[in-house]
Amino acid sequence: MIVIDPASPVPPFEQLRAGLVDAVASGELGAGERLPTVRRLAEDLGVAPGTVARAYRELETAGIIETRGRNGTFVAFDADPARQQLQRAAAAFATQVRDLRLDTDEALAIVAAALRSSGTATA
């Protein structure tokens, strides 16, 4: 969870930008995951909407997030088309696992078994 420290010498938009980059890098936010609206995130963090908008603009320019018009803002997929397809499939699978209320470890074990049986697993 991102926390903005008003006493920090680092501007709030930069704290937010760095926090989102860290969340994406750590996998806390996955490719294709929808981000809160500017207003919602501003309310949640206690900052001005312009602060969130600036952080989102900078992240979009860097290719870390993408805005899809009225559909919202999402963590961007990788530039490699094959990885994009895999990330989209993984995002859809993760949504299905959550919707079915299945255990994450069990779902991952099922995927690993399916990869091994098809001969495509490398580890």
TrEMBL record:
SUPFAM superfamilies: Winged helix' DNA-binding domain. Residues 10-78 form the HTH gntR-type domain. Pfam families: GntR (PF00392). One of its GO terms (molecular function) is DNA-binding transcription factor activity. The keyword Transcription applies. The lineage of its organism: Bacteria, Bacillati, Actinomycetota, Actinomycetes, Micrococcales. This is DNA-binding transcriptional regulator YhcF (GntR family). InterPro entries: Tscrpt_reg_HTH_GntR (IPR000524), WH-like_DNA-bd_sf (IPR036388), WH_DNA-bd_sf (IPR036390). Coiled coil: none annotated. Gene3D superfamilies: Winged helix-like DNA-binding domain superfamily/Winged helix DNA-binding domain. Keywords: DNA-binding, Transcription, Transcription regulation.
